[in-house]
Amino acid sequence: MRRLLLSCLLVAFTLACMSQEVSYKDKSSYKEWYKVARSLSEEFFKTEEAKRIAENVLLYQQTTGGWPKNIYIPAELTEAEREDALAHKDKVNESTIDNNATTTEIVYLAKMYNATFNEKYKDAALKGLQYLFDAQYDNGGWPQFYPRPKGYYIEITYNDNAMINVMNLLRLVYEQKAPFTFAPEEYCTKARKAFDKGVECILKTQVKQNGELTVWCAQHDHITLQPTKARAYELPSLSGQESDEVVILLMSLPNPSQEIINSIEGAVKWFEKVKIEGIKKEFFTNKEGKKDYKMVPCIDCDPLWARFYDLETNRPFFCDRDGKRVYSIAQIGHERRNGYSWYNHDGLKVFKKYAQWKKRKEKKK
Q1: Nearest CA among 307, 305, 301 for reference residue 280
Q2: pLDDT tens sequence across 22-34
Q3: CB-facing half-sphere around the CA of 345: CA atoms within 13 A
Q4: Which of 73, 87, 130, 262 has the fewest CB atoms within 10 Å, i.e. the most exposed one?
Q5: Radius of gyration, CA atoms only, the chain
Q6: Of residues 70, 99, 159, 165, which has the active-site annotation?
Q7: Do 290 and 256 meet the contact criterion of CB atoms below 8 Å apart?
Q8: What domains lie within the chain, and their CATH numbers?
């Protein structure tokens, strides 16, 4: 208990110190909010600092029920900043599930309600859940922003785990697991229906090559369900990054149908097929004094997966802000090379979960 309390106080102190020093729009710090918010202990939510932050969470909630992204919510706000936040409540096109926004705030408010039993936190959390229900397409997918009328923001978004974060939260709701033990039956029913529709969308958007199931694009057209582009350097592709959490979610489902089993097997087979062996990142300082990296040969190093693979050939590719596809990381500029995640080890997570899934499957036979 003492260790837990000390840990809680340390996190609270860190947030308090940062809130006094960091602007609410400091984009180098908003990620700390998303990281720390979900790791805070139950004891923290009984503190005055937790209540102060909760007021900011309420302040930034838009009339849609959702939240904007890239806001360092624990910041100590000036009166001008409060007025700015109030003025943005009706700017509904800023509501999003991107970059962990909305799902993080809903969880925070749910934990605040459990600690204080203050109905305003419960009501705001439920309003956030309703936003997620409203934002879902009839086909089961979620757009990155809602209710934006156009742009890549309206496409079904697996990018940065946006849709999967929503589905994992809704699963906690319909199972009435912490922190959603208070969820009314009506919301549990809605959450279960939305989750199941999300699974249907995942199955419908899984890309096939010559009749064989592979994985998913980072975003899919909200009408045709086909892979589609987002930003200039995010072309239609098979994603070696976003697809990991998609298939891991499928592997977590109890009593999967044969369709879900086929989906899992196809995705895992694809991850095995396209893994990149024998290279790793080597960092160096370039002539301008900037940190950079290149890919170099290695022995006995973990396999890598590329962010983007060609939809037909599975060839890894890269892209700069000009939208031109190239096949070497060295062919794009320093800014995009270092400002985006082009390689990852996410396939290792898939293989680990798959081994566990196979064991469970065998035990049920």
Answers
A1: 301
A2: 444 454 578 888 8
A3: 9
A4: 87
A5: 22
A6: 99
A7: no
A8: 1-204 (1.50.10.20), 206-365 (1.50.10.20)
Task: Let me know the angle formed at the C-alpha of 329 by 327 and 330, rounded to the nearest 5 degrees.
Answer: 105
**Considering only CA atoms, which of 55, 184, 63 is closest in space to residue 134?**
63
Q: What is the mean pLDDT of residues 65-83?
A: 94
Question: Six-digit token pair at 121?
Answer: 């936190």
Rounded-to-10 torsion of CA 324, 326, 330, 335: 30
Q: How many CA atoms lie within 13 A of 36 on its CB side?
A: 24
How far is Cα 313 from Cα 253, in angstroms, rounded to an integer? Answer: 31
- The predicted-structure confidence for 212-237, as pLDDT tens digits, reads as follows 999 999 999 999 999 999 999 999 99
70 carries an active-site annotation: no
Catalytic residue among 231, 315, 321, 360: 231
In whole angstroms, give the CA distance from residue 299 to residue 319. 27
Could you confirm whether 231 is annotated as catalytic? yes
Write down the H helix ranges in the chain: 2-21, 30-37, 48-60, 79-87, 103-116, 119-135, 162-174, 185-205, 243-251, 258-274, 334-338, 346-364
pLDDT value for 173: 98
DSSP-assigned beta bridge partners for residue 145 = 96
